[in-house]
Design goal:
Helices cover about 35% and strands about 15% of the residues. The chain is an alpha/beta fold and about 375 residues long. The structure holds pyridoxal-5'-phosphate (PLP).
Length: about 375
Protein backbone atom coordinates (compact mmCIF):
# COMPACT_ATOMS: atom_id res chain seq x y z
CA UNK A 1 0.00 0.00 0.00
CA UNK A 2 1.41 3.40 -0.86
CA UNK A 3 0.73 6.43 1.28
CA UNK A 4 0.76 9.85 -0.35
CA UNK A 5 3.48 11.89 1.40
CA UNK A 6 1.43 15.06 1.54
CA UNK A 7 -1.54 13.57 3.43
CA UNK A 8 -0.54 11.20 6.23
CA UNK A 9 -3.33 8.79 7.08
CA UNK A 10 -5.25 9.10 10.32
CA UNK A 11 -4.35 6.80 13.21
CA UNK A 12 -7.41 4.55 12.86
CA UNK A 13 -6.69 4.06 9.16
CA UNK A 14 -3.06 3.19 9.85
CA UNK A 15 -4.16 0.61 12.45
CA UNK A 16 -6.13 -1.20 9.76
CA UNK A 17 -3.93 -0.70 6.71
CA UNK A 18 -0.42 -0.89 8.22
CA UNK A 19 1.39 -4.06 7.17
CA UNK A 20 -1.35 -5.58 5.02
CA UNK A 21 -1.44 -6.55 1.33
CA UNK A 22 1.56 -8.81 1.75
CA UNK A 23 0.17 -11.74 -0.22
CA UNK A 24 0.84 -11.16 -3.88
CA UNK A 25 0.19 -14.79 -4.80
CA UNK A 26 -3.50 -15.01 -3.81
CA UNK A 27 -4.30 -11.40 -2.82
CA UNK A 28 -5.58 -12.26 0.65
CA UNK A 29 -7.00 -9.17 2.37
CA UNK A 30 -5.45 -10.06 5.72
CA UNK A 31 -1.76 -10.74 6.30
CA UNK A 32 -1.02 -14.48 6.10
CA UNK A 33 0.82 -16.37 8.85
CA UNK A 34 4.16 -17.75 7.66
CA UNK A 35 4.83 -20.58 10.11
CA UNK A 36 8.22 -21.52 8.74
CA UNK A 37 11.60 -21.58 10.46
CA UNK A 38 13.54 -21.11 7.23
CA UNK A 39 13.22 -19.84 3.63
CA UNK A 40 14.82 -21.44 0.57
CA UNK A 41 17.31 -19.58 -1.58
CA UNK A 42 16.82 -18.99 -5.29
CA UNK A 43 20.54 -19.24 -5.94
CA UNK A 44 23.60 -19.23 -3.73
CA UNK A 45 23.58 -15.45 -3.99
CA UNK A 46 19.91 -14.53 -3.60
CA UNK A 47 16.86 -15.21 -1.45
CA UNK A 48 13.42 -13.65 -0.94
CA UNK A 49 14.78 -11.17 1.61
CA UNK A 50 14.01 -13.65 4.40
CA UNK A 51 16.33 -16.48 5.41
CA UNK A 52 15.54 -17.54 8.98
CA UNK A 53 12.58 -16.67 11.23
CA UNK A 54 14.61 -15.67 14.32
CA UNK A 55 16.08 -12.89 12.17
CA UNK A 56 12.99 -11.91 10.23
CA UNK A 57 9.60 -13.25 9.16
CA UNK A 58 6.98 -11.68 6.84
CA UNK A 59 4.13 -11.85 9.38
CA UNK A 60 6.25 -10.30 12.11
CA UNK A 61 7.57 -7.70 9.68
CA UNK A 62 3.98 -6.67 8.89
CA UNK A 63 3.27 -6.10 12.59
CA UNK A 64 6.52 -4.18 12.98
CA UNK A 65 5.63 -1.89 10.07
CA UNK A 66 2.21 -1.28 11.58
CA UNK A 67 3.49 -0.35 15.06
CA UNK A 68 6.33 1.78 13.63
CA UNK A 69 3.72 3.92 11.87
CA UNK A 70 1.45 4.15 14.93
CA UNK A 71 4.28 5.37 17.19
CA UNK A 72 5.77 7.63 14.53
CA UNK A 73 9.16 5.85 14.64
CA UNK A 74 11.54 4.60 11.97
CA UNK A 75 11.87 0.97 13.05
CA UNK A 76 10.40 -1.63 15.40
CA UNK A 77 11.06 -5.15 16.61
CA UNK A 78 8.17 -7.31 17.81
CA UNK A 79 9.27 -9.46 20.76
CA UNK A 80 7.98 -12.55 22.56
CA UNK A 81 6.82 -10.64 25.67
CA UNK A 82 6.84 -7.15 27.11
CA UNK A 83 9.72 -8.22 29.35
CA UNK A 84 11.80 -9.32 26.36
CA UNK A 85 11.15 -5.85 24.91
CA UNK A 86 12.44 -4.26 28.14
CA UNK A 87 15.49 -6.54 28.05
CA UNK A 88 16.08 -5.74 24.38
CA UNK A 89 16.09 -1.97 25.00
CA UNK A 90 18.27 -2.30 28.11
CA UNK A 91 20.86 -4.29 26.13
CA UNK A 92 21.90 -0.93 24.63
CA UNK A 93 23.72 -0.30 27.93
CA UNK A 94 27.01 -1.68 29.25
CA UNK A 95 28.47 -2.48 32.67
CA UNK A 96 29.39 0.77 34.40
CA UNK A 97 26.42 2.65 32.97
CA UNK A 98 23.94 4.31 35.31
CA UNK A 99 20.20 4.58 34.64
CA UNK A 100 17.58 6.83 36.25
CA UNK A 101 14.21 5.08 36.63
CA UNK A 102 10.85 5.76 38.33
CA UNK A 103 10.30 4.44 41.86
CA UNK A 104 6.85 3.07 40.99
CA UNK A 105 7.93 0.94 38.08
CA UNK A 106 6.10 -2.08 36.62
CA UNK A 107 7.06 -4.96 38.97
CA UNK A 108 8.66 -7.16 36.30
CA UNK A 109 10.77 -4.26 35.01
CA UNK A 110 11.84 -3.44 38.56
CA UNK A 111 12.89 -7.07 39.09
CA UNK A 112 14.94 -7.11 35.86
CA UNK A 113 16.66 -3.83 36.79
CA UNK A 114 17.17 -4.43 40.49
CA UNK A 115 17.86 -8.17 40.61
CA UNK A 116 19.37 -8.99 37.20
CA UNK A 117 20.94 -5.98 35.46
CA UNK A 118 22.31 -4.53 38.69
CA UNK A 119 24.29 -7.77 39.18
CA UNK A 120 25.62 -7.43 35.64
CA UNK A 121 27.12 -4.06 36.53
CA UNK A 122 24.46 -1.55 35.43
CA UNK A 123 23.43 0.72 38.31
CA UNK A 124 20.05 2.37 38.90
CA UNK A 125 18.63 5.26 40.89
CA UNK A 126 14.87 5.02 41.44
CA UNK A 127 13.16 8.38 41.97
CA UNK A 128 9.68 9.92 42.09
CA UNK A 129 9.67 11.18 38.50
CA UNK A 130 6.65 13.43 38.98
CA UNK A 131 9.21 15.75 40.63
CA UNK A 132 11.65 16.98 37.95
CA UNK A 133 13.94 18.32 40.67
CA UNK A 134 14.42 14.77 41.94
CA UNK A 135 15.06 13.54 38.40
CA UNK A 136 17.69 16.27 37.89
CA UNK A 137 19.38 15.35 41.18
CA UNK A 138 19.62 11.66 40.22
CA UNK A 139 22.05 12.12 37.30
CA UNK A 140 25.68 11.11 37.81
CA UNK A 141 28.62 11.38 35.38
CA UNK A 142 27.91 7.70 34.50
CA UNK A 143 24.22 8.23 33.61
CA UNK A 144 23.53 6.95 30.07
CA UNK A 145 19.79 6.41 30.14
CA UNK A 146 16.48 7.44 31.69
CA UNK A 147 13.60 4.96 31.90
CA UNK A 148 10.11 6.49 31.89
CA UNK A 149 6.77 4.81 32.56
CA UNK A 150 3.74 7.08 32.42
CA UNK A 151 1.06 6.84 33.72
CA UNK A 152 2.47 4.67 36.49
CA UNK A 153 1.10 1.44 37.88
CA UNK A 154 -1.09 1.29 39.94
CA UNK A 155 -1.48 4.92 41.06
CA UNK A 156 -1.53 6.55 37.60
CA UNK A 157 1.10 9.20 38.33
CA UNK A 158 1.89 11.17 35.19
CA UNK A 159 5.51 12.02 34.28
CA UNK A 160 6.38 15.13 32.24
CA UNK A 161 7.80 13.61 29.02
CA UNK A 162 9.27 16.80 27.55
CA UNK A 163 10.70 17.84 30.94
CA UNK A 164 12.50 14.52 31.45
CA UNK A 165 13.76 14.50 27.85
CA UNK A 166 15.25 17.97 28.33
CA UNK A 167 17.14 16.86 31.45
CA UNK A 168 18.34 13.65 29.78
CA UNK A 169 19.66 15.51 26.73
CA UNK A 170 21.58 17.90 28.94
CA UNK A 171 23.40 14.86 30.34
CA UNK A 172 23.76 13.02 26.99
CA UNK A 173 21.51 10.23 28.23
CA UNK A 174 18.93 8.48 26.06
CA UNK A 175 15.27 8.20 27.10
CA UNK A 176 13.20 5.03 26.89
CA UNK A 177 9.47 5.13 27.62
CA UNK A 178 7.21 2.20 28.50
CA UNK A 179 3.99 3.30 26.75
CA UNK A 180 1.94 0.21 27.64
CA UNK A 181 -0.72 1.95 29.76
CA UNK A 182 -1.94 4.35 27.07
CA UNK A 183 -0.95 2.84 23.69
CA UNK A 184 0.15 5.05 20.78
CA UNK A 185 -3.47 6.07 20.25
CA UNK A 186 -3.43 8.16 23.43
CA UNK A 187 0.25 9.03 23.80
CA UNK A 188 3.19 9.19 21.39
CA UNK A 189 6.36 9.71 23.44
CA UNK A 190 8.59 9.98 20.34
CA UNK A 191 6.74 13.22 19.47
CA UNK A 192 8.03 14.65 22.78
CA UNK A 193 11.65 13.79 22.00
CA UNK A 194 11.84 10.37 23.66
CA UNK A 195 14.37 8.13 21.83
CA UNK A 196 12.83 4.68 22.26
CA UNK A 197 9.32 3.45 23.11
CA UNK A 198 8.48 -0.03 24.31
CA UNK A 199 5.21 -1.85 24.91
CA UNK A 200 3.83 -4.95 26.39
CA UNK A 201 1.59 -5.62 23.37
CA UNK A 202 -0.09 -8.17 25.68
CA UNK A 203 -2.14 -5.20 26.89
CA UNK A 204 -3.92 -2.57 24.75
CA UNK A 205 -2.16 -3.09 21.42
CA UNK A 206 -3.43 -6.66 21.15
CA UNK A 207 -6.33 -5.98 23.48
CA UNK A 208 -7.95 -9.41 23.58
CA UNK A 209 -6.06 -11.16 26.42
CA UNK A 210 -5.08 -14.04 24.14
CA UNK A 211 -1.35 -13.53 23.57
CA UNK A 212 1.76 -12.18 25.33
CA UNK A 213 4.07 -9.97 23.31
CA UNK A 214 6.14 -6.82 23.21
CA UNK A 215 7.77 -4.33 20.90
CA UNK A 216 10.57 -1.76 20.82
CA UNK A 217 10.21 1.27 18.53
CA UNK A 218 13.10 3.63 17.71
CA UNK A 219 13.07 7.24 16.62
CA UNK A 220 16.51 7.19 14.95
CA UNK A 221 17.81 4.82 12.27
CA UNK A 222 20.93 4.19 14.41
CA UNK A 223 18.90 2.96 17.38
CA UNK A 224 16.60 0.97 15.07
CA UNK A 225 19.61 -0.84 13.64
CA UNK A 226 21.14 -1.53 17.06
CA UNK A 227 17.82 -2.78 18.46
CA UNK A 228 17.24 -5.08 15.46
CA UNK A 229 20.76 -6.47 15.91
CA UNK A 230 20.20 -7.10 19.63
CA UNK A 231 16.80 -8.71 19.01
CA UNK A 232 18.34 -11.18 16.55
CA UNK A 233 21.48 -11.81 18.61
CA UNK A 234 19.54 -12.48 21.82
CA UNK A 235 16.71 -14.32 20.04
CA UNK A 236 13.90 -12.20 21.48
CA UNK A 237 11.48 -12.01 18.55
CA UNK A 238 7.89 -13.28 18.69
CA UNK A 239 6.49 -16.20 16.69
CA UNK A 240 4.67 -15.62 13.37
CA UNK A 241 1.41 -16.82 14.93
CA UNK A 242 1.69 -14.41 17.88
CA UNK A 243 2.58 -11.58 15.49
CA UNK A 244 -0.55 -12.40 13.49
CA UNK A 245 -2.74 -12.30 16.60
CA UNK A 246 -1.37 -8.89 17.63
CA UNK A 247 -1.79 -7.59 14.08
CA UNK A 248 -5.41 -8.74 14.23
CA UNK A 249 -5.93 -7.05 17.60
CA UNK A 250 -4.33 -3.72 16.74
CA UNK A 251 -6.81 -3.03 13.92
CA UNK A 252 -9.44 -1.97 16.47
CA UNK A 253 -7.10 -0.12 18.86
CA UNK A 254 -8.60 3.34 18.33
CA UNK A 255 -12.23 2.45 18.85
CA UNK A 256 -11.46 0.10 21.74
CA UNK A 257 -9.53 2.84 23.53
CA UNK A 258 -12.29 5.40 22.91
CA UNK A 259 -14.98 3.16 24.34
CA UNK A 260 -12.89 1.82 27.23
CA UNK A 261 -11.74 5.24 28.41
CA UNK A 262 -15.26 6.58 28.19
CA UNK A 263 -16.33 3.73 30.50
CA UNK A 264 -13.37 4.48 32.79
CA UNK A 265 -14.38 8.13 33.15
CA UNK A 266 -17.94 7.15 34.12
CA UNK A 267 -16.69 4.59 36.64
CA UNK A 268 -14.22 7.12 38.10
CA UNK A 269 -17.08 9.61 38.63
CA UNK A 270 -19.27 6.93 40.21
CA UNK A 271 -16.51 5.84 42.59
CA UNK A 272 -15.59 9.44 43.46
CA UNK A 273 -19.14 10.00 44.72
CA UNK A 274 -19.44 6.68 46.61
CA UNK A 275 -19.44 6.94 50.44
CA UNK A 276 -17.17 3.89 50.87
CA UNK A 277 -14.46 5.23 48.57
CA UNK A 278 -11.73 7.43 50.03
CA UNK A 279 -9.82 8.36 46.88
CA UNK A 280 -9.88 7.65 43.15
CA UNK A 281 -6.69 7.68 41.07
CA UNK A 282 -7.57 8.57 37.48
CA UNK A 283 -5.81 11.28 35.42
CA UNK A 284 -9.15 12.29 33.90
CA UNK A 285 -10.44 13.64 37.22
CA UNK A 286 -9.81 17.33 37.92
CA UNK A 287 -8.62 16.29 41.40
CA UNK A 288 -5.75 14.21 39.95
CA UNK A 289 -2.47 16.03 40.78
CA UNK A 290 -1.21 15.83 37.16
CA UNK A 291 -4.56 16.31 35.40
CA UNK A 292 -3.34 19.42 33.55
CA UNK A 293 -0.05 17.78 32.53
CA UNK A 294 -1.93 14.71 31.27
CA UNK A 295 -4.02 16.99 29.06
CA UNK A 296 -0.91 18.42 27.42
CA UNK A 297 0.79 15.13 26.53
CA UNK A 298 -2.03 12.56 26.30
CA UNK A 299 -4.86 12.43 23.81
CA UNK A 300 -7.06 10.85 26.47
CA UNK A 301 -6.88 9.58 30.03
CA UNK A 302 -6.86 5.85 29.37
CA UNK A 303 -8.86 3.01 30.85
CA UNK A 304 -6.85 2.13 33.97
CA UNK A 305 -7.88 3.45 37.36
CA UNK A 306 -7.28 2.67 41.01
CA UNK A 307 -9.06 3.59 44.19
CA UNK A 308 -8.60 3.47 47.96
CA UNK A 309 -11.53 2.22 50.00
CA UNK A 310 -12.50 3.46 53.43
CA UNK A 311 -12.25 0.98 56.35
CA UNK A 312 -9.08 -0.70 55.09
CA UNK A 313 -8.81 -4.12 53.56
CA UNK A 314 -12.33 -5.41 54.27
CA UNK A 315 -14.08 -3.17 51.75
CA UNK A 316 -11.29 -3.65 49.20
CA UNK A 317 -11.60 -7.41 49.55
CA UNK A 318 -15.39 -7.30 49.38
CA UNK A 319 -15.46 -5.34 46.15
CA UNK A 320 -12.87 -7.60 44.51
CA UNK A 321 -14.55 -10.84 45.51
CA UNK A 322 -18.18 -9.78 45.00
CA UNK A 323 -18.02 -8.37 41.50
CA UNK A 324 -19.58 -10.56 38.83
CA UNK A 325 -18.38 -8.87 35.66
CA UNK A 326 -14.81 -8.02 36.73
CA UNK A 327 -12.55 -11.08 36.90
CA UNK A 328 -10.00 -10.90 39.70
CA UNK A 329 -6.87 -11.20 37.59
CA UNK A 330 -3.50 -9.69 36.81
CA UNK A 331 -2.88 -8.03 33.46
CA UNK A 332 -4.83 -5.22 31.83
CA UNK A 333 -5.78 -3.67 28.55
CA UNK A 334 -8.15 -6.36 27.31
CA UNK A 335 -11.75 -5.90 26.29
CA UNK A 336 -12.96 -7.62 29.47
CA UNK A 337 -12.88 -5.68 32.72
CA UNK A 338 -10.49 -6.94 35.40
CA UNK A 339 -10.08 -6.02 39.05
CA UNK A 340 -7.01 -6.63 41.19
CA UNK A 341 -5.52 -6.12 44.64
CA UNK A 342 -1.96 -4.82 44.10
CA UNK A 343 -0.70 -5.81 47.59
CA UNK A 344 -1.09 -9.56 46.99
CA UNK A 345 -1.03 -9.54 43.19
CA UNK A 346 0.87 -7.19 40.85
CA UNK A 347 2.94 -5.54 43.62
CA UNK A 348 3.47 -8.54 45.92
CA UNK A 349 7.19 -8.64 45.13
CA UNK A 350 7.71 -5.17 46.60
CA UNK A 351 8.62 -4.96 50.30
CA UNK A 352 5.85 -3.51 52.53
CA UNK A 353 8.10 -0.45 53.07
CA UNK A 354 8.56 0.09 49.32
CA UNK A 355 4.81 -0.27 48.80
CA UNK A 356 4.10 2.21 51.57
CA UNK A 357 6.60 4.65 50.06
CA UNK A 358 4.87 4.31 46.68
CA UNK A 359 1.45 4.91 48.31
CA UNK A 360 0.07 1.40 47.72
CA UNK A 361 -1.84 0.03 50.70
CA UNK A 362 -4.34 -2.66 51.71
CA UNK A 363 -7.06 -0.20 50.74
CA UNK A 364 -5.91 0.04 47.13
CA UNK A 365 -7.81 -1.68 44.32
CA UNK A 366 -6.88 -1.49 40.62
CA UNK A 367 -9.31 -1.76 37.75
CA UNK A 368 -8.71 -2.34 34.04
CA UNK A 369 -11.92 -1.09 32.46
CA UNK A 370 -13.18 -3.11 29.50
CA UNK A 371 -15.64 -2.73 26.68
CA UNK A 372 -18.81 -3.89 28.45
CA UNK A 373 -21.68 -1.39 28.83
CA UNK A 374 -20.82 1.20 31.47
CA UNK A 375 -24.20 0.87 33.22
CA UNK A 376 -23.65 -2.85 33.78
CA UNK A 377 -20.14 -2.24 35.12
CA UNK A 378 -21.30 0.50 37.49
CA UNK A 379 -24.29 -1.55 38.73
CA UNK A 380 -21.91 -4.43 39.39
CA UNK A 381 -19.46 -2.30 41.40
CA UNK A 382 -22.39 -0.81 43.32
CA UNK A 383 -23.70 -4.22 44.40
CA UNK A 384 -20.17 -5.43 45.18
CA UNK A 385 -19.49 -2.43 47.44
CA UNK A 386 -22.77 -3.29 49.18
C1 LIG B 1 2.60 -6.13 31.48
C2 LIG B 1 3.59 -5.04 31.48
C3 LIG B 1 4.94 -5.26 31.14
C4 LIG B 1 5.49 -6.64 30.86
O1 LIG B 1 4.90 -7.24 29.76
P1 LIG B 1 4.69 -8.82 29.56
O2 LIG B 1 4.02 -8.90 28.25
O3 LIG B 1 3.85 -9.30 30.71
O4 LIG B 1 6.05 -9.45 29.59
C5 LIG B 1 5.79 -4.16 31.11
N1 LIG B 1 5.35 -2.92 31.41
C6 LIG B 1 4.07 -2.68 31.74
C7 LIG B 1 3.65 -1.29 32.05
C8 LIG B 1 3.14 -3.72 31.79
O5 LIG B 1 1.88 -3.47 32.14
Amino acid sequence: MSTPEESPLHFETQCIHGGVHKDQQYNSVTTPIYPTSTFYWNSLESNSGYDYTRSSNPTRKALEENITALEGGVGCVATSTGMSAVHCAMALFSPGDHIVAPADLYGGTFRLFDKFLQEKGISFTFVDMTDLGKVAAAFTPATRGVWIETPSNPLLKVIDLAGVVQLARKHNAITICDNTFLSPYLQRPLDFGVDIVMHSTTKYINGHSDVVGGCVVSKSPEHAKQIAWICNALGLACSPFDAWLVLRGVKTLGCRMDAQQSNAMKIARFLEAHPLIERVYYPGLETHPQHELAKTQQRGFGAMLSFDTKDGRSVAERVCMNTRLFDVAESLGGIESLISFPVTMSHASMTPEARAAAGISEKTVRVSVGLEHSEDLIADLKQALG
